[in-house]
Amino acid sequence: MHADFDLDDLVYSVNATSMKDGAKEFRFINDLTEDEDEERRILEFLSGAELYTMGRVRYEESASHFRGKSAVDHPFAPIYAAADKVVFSQTLASADWEKTTINRGDLVTEVEKLKSEGNGYMIVTGRGGIHRTLLHHDLIDEFRITVFRMLLGRGVRMLDPDDVGEFKPLELVSCHPGTHGVVVLHYRRRR
Question: Which domain holds residue 113?
């Protein structure tokens, strides 16, 4: 499934781990029975990444949730621990989560540099300014979006028109319907 990725891909991934665990709207996720096929696909995708990129807020949330934990605690914990991580921040004083580097350079310039030096795919996680900036500058090559069977009617929008900038066509790579009406969409930027 991942063999067709270009070596310099940057993937934007949105899934249940992008949501605060205690948020009332997302408590139903904890009650869903496991979908072994989907969990296997997610674990393969996450473990295949060469690099994770994120902003300070996402770093602090992820580090506090996954640092020092094993697969028994959460199946993503050992994957994140083993992966190289770059945090783009001007304010983060230090990073104590293993294999983490703070990058204080210009986000667009530094991501272009990382993409040109990469041997695999990078994943940008979070729901803040970092993915909006990368999208606006057309630096995201693929999108993986998990759709849950719920309409909130409020909350933070995933994307705003200013984030997208000019028209950016996508092509559907795959669509995996899971149990309980959850669907995982995988799109690639058509260039």
Answer: 10-189
